Amino acid sequence: MVTTHLQGGAMKLLRKNISISVLAIFFILLFGMTACVSTSSSYKIPSPVEPSGKHLFFLHGTITEEKGAYATTREYGTYDYHHMVKSFRDRGFTVISEIRPQGTNKVAYAKKVVHQINTLINSGVLSKNISVVGFSKGGDITLNVAAILKNPDVRFVVMAGCGKTGRYRQSFQNFVTGAATSMQGHFLSVYDANDAICGSCQAAFNAAGDNITSKEIELYVGRGHGTFYEPRREWLDPVVDWINSSRP
Predict the structure, then answer these.
(1) How far is 97 from 194, CA to CA, in rounded Å?
(2) Are residues 84 and 197 in the same domain?
(3) Calpha distance 72→135 (Å, rounded)
(4) Which of 44, 53, 56, 90 has its CA 20 to 30 A from that of 124?
(5) For residue 66, with 0-12 CB atoms within 10 Å meaning exposed, 13-18 middle and 19 or more buried, which class applies?
(6) Which residues lie across from 212 on neighbouring strands?
(7) pLDDT band at 40 (very low <50, low <70, confident <90, very high)
(8) How many structural domains comprise the chain?
C-alpha cells in the first residue's frame, strides 16, 4: 500500500512538472512571436547607410494606427502594411517605415521624419535620392514634412491625403492657410475620383507657389479611398515611375 501511495504521488508530481513545462513553452513561444511582430513592425534606417541607394519613407494611414499591420474594414477590405512596404522594396527602394502609435500627432511625427531624412543626408545620401510617400493621414504628414524640411530636392508623394469633406477638409484647409507656404520640393498627388474623403492637393500646391514643382493624377479605379489599400499597379506604377524620373 505504501508503494502504491508513493507511485501515485510521483505520478501527480510528474503531471505537475509536465504542465509547468508545457506552460513555459507556451509563454516562450508567445513572447517570441510578440518580439517578432514588434521587430517586423518597423523598417529602420540601415546601418551602414548606402549613399547611392534610393531611400523611401513610407507613411501609412490612420487605419493602421488603429488596427495594426493587417487592418481590415468592411468597406475596403484589408490594408496589409507589410505587403505595401514589400511592394516598394521589390521596386528597388530602401524603405524606412514603422507602424505609428494610435493617435500620433502629425506635426510631431513629421519632425521625426525630418530628423531621419537629415540623418541620411549627413550620411552621404543625395537629397534627390530621398522620397516620402504617404497615404491618407500619412499623406497629411508628408505635406508637413515638406513644410518643415524645406529641401528643394526631396520628392514627396501624397496618396489620398488632402481632405475634401468634414474634419478632413478642415484639417487640410488649416494646412493650406498656414504651413503650406513653407513647402519646398517636388510633389506628386494621386487620388481616386470616387474618394469621398480625400481629393485634390492643388490648393496646397498653389499656396506653395514657385517653391515647388507639382503633378497631380486623378485615377478612375472606382474604389475610392480603398484604391490605396492594395499595391495596385494603377497607382504604384505611376508613383514609382515619377520618383525614378530624371525630372519631376
Answers:
(1) 28
(2) yes
(3) 16
(4) 90
(5) exposed
(6) 185
(7) low
(8) 2
